[in-house]
């Protein structure tokens, strides 16, 4: 939103509102697939679920956000 405000100010205006927002995220890293596979079991009886393993390592999260804003000049 800071970037939208900066652009609006450069155009001599200000942001009135966010018209549309979309986000796409990707997640990856050690152990992610194993944890994801176990979360699919959540529809089963909780007593049948195995404990979720906690893996050491790095988890990368990348997110791209697109905002369409209305600017008043």
Would you report the number of β strands?
2
How many individual domains? 1
Mean pLDDT: 77
Report the span from N to C terminus.
17 Å
List low-pLDDT spans: 31-37
What's the alpha carbon Rg, rounded to whole Å? 21 Å
Judged by helices, strands and strand pairing, the structural class is: alpha+beta
Shape: elongated
Task: Report the total helices.
Answer: 2
Strand percentage: 35-45%
Strands side by side in the biggest sheet: 1-2
Q: How would a textbook summarize the main sheet? A: 2 strands, antiparallel
Molecular structure report:
This protein is of the alpha+beta class and 73 residues long. It contains 2 helices and 2 strands, in the order αβαβ. It has one domain. The protein starts with a helix and ends with a strand.
Can you summarize this structure?
With 73 residues, the protein is α+β, with helices and mostly antiparallel strands. The chain is built from two helices and two strands, in the order H-E-H-E. The protein has a two-stranded antiparallel ribbon with strand order 1-2.
């Amino acid at each position: 939103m800071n970037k939208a405000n900066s652009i609006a100010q450069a155009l001599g205006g200000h942001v009135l509102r966010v018209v549309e927002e979309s986000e796409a995220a990707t997640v990856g890293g050690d152990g992610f697939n194993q944890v994801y596979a176990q979360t699919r079991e959540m529809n089963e009886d909780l007593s049948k679920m195995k404990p979720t393993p906690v893996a050491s390592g790095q988890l990368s999260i990348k997110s791209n956000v697109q905002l369409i804003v209305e600017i008043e000049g």
